[in-house]
């Protein structure tokens, strides 16, 4: 697969997709032979280059796209990554449902943001995008009650709270 996009070779911490990430995107959203060609090129490229962090996020999507094609190299690994992602996200989602029920019972309105919102609106499959947390937004007037409720339920923050919060 020849890339039709310019390759960004600038700063190391760039947000531009790497060549291997572009191959995985093509394998995830391409159809038939173009998806398989991108996947095989990705596998060939990975034999001689280090793993890139962003690639893991794309692998479940690749599995969903090419998983039903027989004879795909590396399919078992893709299936395992998808299954692990599904298991972890289901566990996270189930534990968060408990908190959501408490927000609703305390009449605290909220909206989901980022990953979980994307799952609900677009993916409809908890195995397709790895999550490590669930982001949500409450009104400022409900922030203190929400933090208190989270703590009462055993949740904690990995970030220090501002002094005006409990």
Written description of the protein model:
With 166 residues, the protein is mainly alpha-helical. Helices cover 54% and strands 5% of the residues. It is built from six helices and two strands. The protein has helices spanning 19-29, 32-46, 55-66, 75-105, 114-123, 143-152; strands spanning 110-113, 135-138. Strands 1-2 form a two-stranded antiparallel ribbon. The longest helix has 31 residues, at 75-105. The mean pLDDT is 81.
Short characterization:
With 166 residues, the chain is mainly α. It has helices at 19-29, 32-46, 55-66, 75-105, 114-123, 143-152, and strands spanning 110-113, 135-138.
Strand and helix map with partners:
Blueprint: H1 19-29, H2 32-46, H3 55-66, H4 75-105, E1 110-113, H5 114-123, E2 135-138, H6 143-152
Given as residue ranges, the uncertain stretches (5+ residues, pLDDT < 50) are none
Mean pLDDT: 81
* Strand residues, percent: under 5%
- Strand order across the biggest sheet? 1-2
Number of beta-strand segments = 2
Using the CA coordinates, give the radius of gyration. Answer: 20 Å
Task: List SSEs in N-to-C order.
Answer: HHHHEHEH
Helix proportion range: 40-55%
Query: Shape, please?
Result: elongated
Please give the largest β-sheet: 2 strands, antiparallel
- Broad structural category: mainly alpha
**Multimeric state of these chains?**
single chain
What's the total helix number? 6
Distance between the termini: 55 Å
């Amino acid at each position: 697969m020849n890339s039709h996009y310019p390759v960004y070779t600038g700063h190391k911490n760039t947000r531009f997709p790497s060549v291997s990430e572009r191959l995985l995107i093509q394998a995830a959203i391409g159809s038939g032979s173009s998806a398989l060609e991108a996947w095989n090129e990705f596998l060939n490229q990975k034999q001689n280059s280090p793993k890139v962090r962003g690639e893991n996020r794309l692998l479940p999507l690749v599995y969903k796209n090419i998983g039903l094609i027989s004879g795909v190299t590396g399919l078992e690994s893709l299936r395992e990554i998808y299954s692990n992602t599904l298991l972890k996200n289901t566990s996270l989602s189930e534990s968060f449902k408990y908190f959501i029920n408490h927000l609703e019972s305390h009449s605290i309105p909220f909206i989901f943001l980022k990953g979980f919102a994307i799952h609900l609106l677009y993916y409809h499959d908890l195995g397709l995008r790895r999550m490590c947390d669930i982001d949500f937004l409450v009104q400022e007037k409900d922030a203190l009650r929400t933090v208190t409720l989270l703590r009462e339920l055993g949740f904690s923050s990995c970030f220090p709270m501002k002094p005006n919060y409990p």
